[in-house]
Write a structure and sequence with these properties.
mainly alpha
């Protein structure tokens, strides 16, 4: 019985059975599609806009993470400083007095770093506002004028949303309890 059985021939057209081609199995070319160039450009624009939103959100979250870390470190150092300040001045050793000064300097540096961070957030918020204004103007221009401006001619800049500044002000900003 084994001698009468023929081994399968892989890759052979003779042993490959193709299902009959139906209308749903036809290969559709981009040229045959009803999608227009304007539709494709619109989709690309939407995708680019979503990417910009995600980049802005990522930037905002990075600023917030940095701010949270700075606030935690400032709080920790302030607690340590408060313990040293609570000791009577005549009972403090030279090391404790030196540690007090070091803590004040460290807190000062961290507060300055945080101030630079808040300034950066404000700068990014203003840049974002300008970009949004330019985008609104771009969207209001006729399609023919839009095509003349290439993507390479447009400038990109870092992004930051308004909520990041608001959150930074609420935490360790103007209303923060540890500052």
């Amino acid at each position: 019985m084994e001698g009468s059985r023929t081994p399968p021939r892989y890759g052979s057209m003779e042993s490959t059975r193709w299902p009959p081609a139906g209308p749903e199995d036809e290969i559709v070319s981009m040229a045959d599609s009803t999608t227009t160039i304007d539709d494709i450009e619109g989709e690309l624009f939407k995708i680019e806009r979503i990417r910009e939103i995600l980049v802005r959100r990522e930037s905002e979250l990075r600023y917030m993470m940095d701010d949270i870390q700075l606030c935690k470190e400032i709080s920790r150092l302030k607690k340590e400083l408060q313990k040293l300040i609570a000791l009577p001045e005549n009972e403090k050793s030279n090391e404790e007095k030196q540690r007090e000064e070091d803590l004040v300097q460290q807190i000062h540096k961290l507060v300055e770093t945080r101030d630079f961070l808040v300034d950066d957030v404000e700068f990014e918020r203003l840049r974002e506002r300008e970009e949004d204004k330019e985008m609104a103007e771009f969207l209001q221009t006729p399609v023919k004028e839009k095509k003349m401006t290439s993507r390479g001619q447009q400038t990109s800049a870092p992004y930051m949303s308004k909520t990041g500044l608001t959150l930074l002000k609420e935490c360790c900003g103007f209303t923060c309890s540890i500052m």
